[in-house]
From TrEMBL:
Keyword line: Membrane, Transmembrane, Transmembrane helix
Keyword Transmembrane helix: yes
Lineage top rank: taxon: Bacteria
Name listed for the protein in its UniProt record: DUF3137 domain-containing protein
Residue spans crossing the bilayer: 6-31
Species whose genome carries this gene: Glycomyces luteolus
Length: 228
């Protein structure tokens, strides 16, 4: 066998390796991702059984919880790791919202953890967020007779009456005093009171947020739930 033939054979083997190794790497990555997902599903299944919840790895019906951002942001929306049960005698609903945003040739994936409790009656949208330099300058929200509150919180609702009934002076003082209210965003919408934060679902946080939502609900006067 000549040196030229031997060199060609070695080059061919090296080329095959160069082509094959990336393919093997992709294959291993896919298998690793699938196994990690299976382990994650097993952990959440066990968590749900422990706390008397029902669990679905994916349930698109959960997306009907809200018709506002981030539920309407981007495309390809998915409801992953959906947990449903009861907490303090109301329905508790939590899941991971996922959507994609395209910009030119690039695409990014975004996740939100959603935790919601059921309301005594259907009510209008009332969104409680936090003010910053941009929102103070460009976004219009409801004003209350408490400047320190207005400076801290951004309140949006198509029903000012409902907003003022829910956020009365005692509630404003509670929101200003409670550190959780300074970082957690929450929303009344339809049959639910919900909170959401960027990131994947963490079952260790579910009851923390659910407890906060119950304390928000406890601030609402009972007359808010009567009538149409």
């Amino acid at each position: 066998m000549t040196e030229a033939v031997t060199g060609a054979m070695i080059a061919s083997v090296l080329l095959s390796l160069c082509v094959g190794i990336p393919g093997l790497a992709v294959g291993f990555a896919i298998v690793h991702t699938r196994r990690a997902r299976q382990r994650h599903i097993a952990r959440l299944t066990a968590w749900a059984a422990l706390h008397g919840f029902q669990y679905w790895p994916k349930d698109q019906s959960a997306l009907g919880l809200s018709r506002q951002a981030p539920f309407t942001t981007g495309s390809g929306h998915e409801a992953l790791d959906v947990l449903r049960g009861t907490f303090r005698d109301v329905h508790l609903h939590c899941f991971q919202l996922r959507y994609r945003v395209s910009s030119g040739d690039s695409q990014s994936t975004h996740d939100y953890q959603v935790v919601a409790i059921s309301l005594p009656a259907m009510r209008p949208l009332l969104d409680i967020a936090h003010e910053n330099a941009l929102t103070r300058r460009f976004d219009k929200d409801l004003e209350f007779e408490h400047q320190a509150f207005n400076d801290k919180f951004k309140i949006v609702s198509p029903s000012p009456r409902f907003a003022h009934d829910v956020i009365h002076p005692r509630t404003m003082e509670w929101m200003l005093a409670d550190p959780r209210a300074h970082t957690i965003r929450w929303r009344f919408e339809g049959a639910w009171l919900m909170t959401f934060r960027p990131g994947r679902l963490d079952p260790q946080e579910v009851f923390y947020y659910a407890e906060f939502l119950h304390q928000v609900l406890a601030q609402v006067p009972k007359h808010v739930w009567s009538g149409p």
